[in-house]
Amino acid sequence: MKQENINELFEKFINQCRYVSKMSEATIVGYQSTLKLLQTIYPNLEVEMLTPEVMTEFFEKLEHRARIVGRNKEVKIGIKSSTVATYRSKLNKFFLWLVSNSHLKVNPFDTIPYPDVNYDDKKFLHKEELGKIAAAITTRSNNLLVRKRDMAMFYTLLYCGLRRGEIIGLKVYDINLERKEMTVAAETSKSKNSRIIPINQELVTLFKDYLAERKKHSYQTPCLFVSNNKDAGITLSGLKHCIDALNRLSGVNFHLHQLRHTFAVNLLNNHSDIAKLKQLMGHRDIRQTASYLRCLPTECMREDVESLSLNRMCWKYFTSYSEDAC
User: What is the topology classification, in CATH, of domain 127-299?
Assistant: First the structure.
């Protein structure tokens, strides 16, 4: 019997993810790109090579590999701990599948400690930066529809914390202006669960303004955010082009997902319940949401600390002092 190579096995794994586990295409693309990266480092990769030594060497090579990033084609060396964790997580799914289907005896990550993730990677944008981006939207295009669309998209990301696939997937009927609600459909969500997000009055006003302008152009597509040159929704490449232009015009070097981080940090900063934030962000596990607690800026906790005083301490609840309790 012919032994299947790693590409054939990976295709079976992907089919199971797609048709049985019903994972999102964005998740599947992540698995595919990570294996492709591993095969770039090891062009003749086979299952037998999946050992702790090879995995360690793989991440060592990534750490020392020069790469070109950004519009200025800056050369960078090294990768973030969060990127290591992401690559490991995506490869680990495939390795677990190989072990459970008897194609691999031992998962190579079993004996490798998980990376210590630096939560500073979840960078949020400050008020001044957000103001510059909003100002850039007003000058990016002479097309009134584009300006109103971009402003509505920007504040949807900022006030609702959507992922890029979710904002691309929004339909006109997902917005209920009377109830001030937005529905994120399960098929566009990374978690594969639908959720309803309340929208504030500022965003309601922006939607009304944008939809009125959109109506003048007789669009028939159900997609909420439209292309400026055809009757269809804006594409991922179109969204990327928009973000790149705003980077250039505003002078703020940001990526779309930072608006989601900004949404989360600001809700927590305004004393939102973490369970509510989990639901609003569409997280499966509250531990994902809890990671944002580590991103809160020091200043937002100053008022809480300033409220402490000796006279307000809850001494009556403590009958004795124990170092073990600290």
Answer: hpI Integrase; Chain A (1.10.443)
* DSSP bridge pairs for 77: 66
Both tokens of 27, joined, read 């998740």
Question: For residues 187 and 316, what is the distance between their CA atoms, to the nearest angstrom?
Answer: 53
Dump pLDDT digits (tens) for 211-253.
999 999 999 999 999 999 899 999 999 999 999 999 999 999 9
Give the residues across from 176 on adjacent strands: 181
Cα dist from 56 to 9, 22, 49, 53, 114, whole Å: 22, 31, 12, 5, 12
Backbone angles phi, psi at 184, to 5 degrees: -100, 115
Tokens of 11: 């295709």
Do 155 and 202 touch, CB atoms closer than 8 A? yes
Q: Locate CATH 1.10.150 in the chain.
A: 6-117
Give start-end residues of each CATH 1.10.443.10 domain in the chain.
Answer: 127-299
**Global confidence as pTM:** 0.72
Rg (CA), the chain: 24
Q: Is 66 helix (H, G, I), strand (E, B) or coil?
A: strand
Distance (Å, whole) CA 138 – CA 182: 25
Query: Domain 6-117: which CATH class?
Result: mainly alpha
H-run or E-run covering 276: helix 274-281
What does the DSSP assignment read for 173-185?
Answer: GGEETTTTEEEE-
- From CA 21, how far away is CA 16, in angstroms rounded? 6
- What distance in Å separates the CA atoms of residue 252 and residue 243, rounded to the nearest whole number? 10
197 neighbors 160 (Cβ within 8 angstroms) = yes
pLDDT tens, 274-291? 999 999 999 888 888 887
